[in-house]
Amino acid sequence: MYLIAPSILSADFTRLGEEVVNVIESGADWIHFDVMDNHYVPNLTVGPLVCEAIRPLTRALIDVHLMARPVDRLIHDFARAGANLISFHPEASEHVDRSLALIRDSGCQSGLVFNPATPLDYLDYVMDKLDLVLLMGVNPGFGGQAFIPATLAKLRAVRARIDAYERASGRRIRLEIDGGVKVDNIAEIAGAGADTFVAGSAIYGAGQDGDAHRYDSIIADLRAELAKA
To answer: Which domains does the chain have, with CATH numbers?
Structure first.
């Protein structure tokens, strides 16, 4: 039921390919790919060429989170680069329904991302086009921030919507959390309704063994906590 998606934003970029391979071999499920444009958020990270470079290194799902504006051109580019799932912030799209359709038409799963202060009203109109809802547990832009406790209530609200939609349609939508996830709070976050967990600094900042850069121990600790949820 639970999936762990390490964010490469916190990886060692001098050995990014190894970091991707090692974290999957250590038990992670997805690779989370944070895209920041220095416009929608005050940071600049990576683009489609990096996604294309890591695609041959793993069969794991590449979960692309676009923190960029506008999104439509990037959707096309990341789909071609090998992304499996593409999510974006509704504030970054001129037409949310059309952007979601572009993702689906490109052969990828689609997701919508909500910042801590973004209302959930968009969900009233697009649940049939979503494979994932991503809630930010921090304000986006930088890794290593502390989880915002009010996100727990928002998770419960989205979980209720997703469960009601699944009962009516028979179709499942994943609920992902990104920001501030770590060993000492992941069980509480899961209890609020999340089933997919992005963790950057919590994983890549721990469990390293010299040059091996293994993450078995920290991922095992996260799963042990999830078992308590």
So the answer is: 3-226 (3.20.20.70)
Which residues are registered as beta bridge partners of 3? 196
| Token pair recorded at residue 118 | 């973004």
With 0-12 / 13-18 / 19 or more C-beta atoms within 10 angstroms meaning exposed / middle / buried, residue 160 is exposed
Please determine, for residue 86, whether its predicted confidence score (pLDDT) is greater than 80: yes
200, amino acid identity? G
As a whole number of angstroms, the distance between CA 172 and CA 166 comes to 6
pLDDT tens-place string over residues 119-136: 999 999 999 999 999 999
Catalytic sites, residue numbers = 34, 178
* pTM more than 0.70: yes
pLDDT digit string (tens) for 25-49? 999 999 999 999 999 999 999 999 9
